[in-house]
Amino acid sequence: MAVETMTVEVAEASAMGLKAIGAGLAVGLTGIATGIAEMGIGAAAVGATAENKDMFGLALLFTVIPETIVIFGLVVALLLLF
Question: Which of 7, 26, 30, 55 could bridge to 76 as Cys pair (CB 3.0-4.6 Å)?
Answer without folding.
Answer: 26
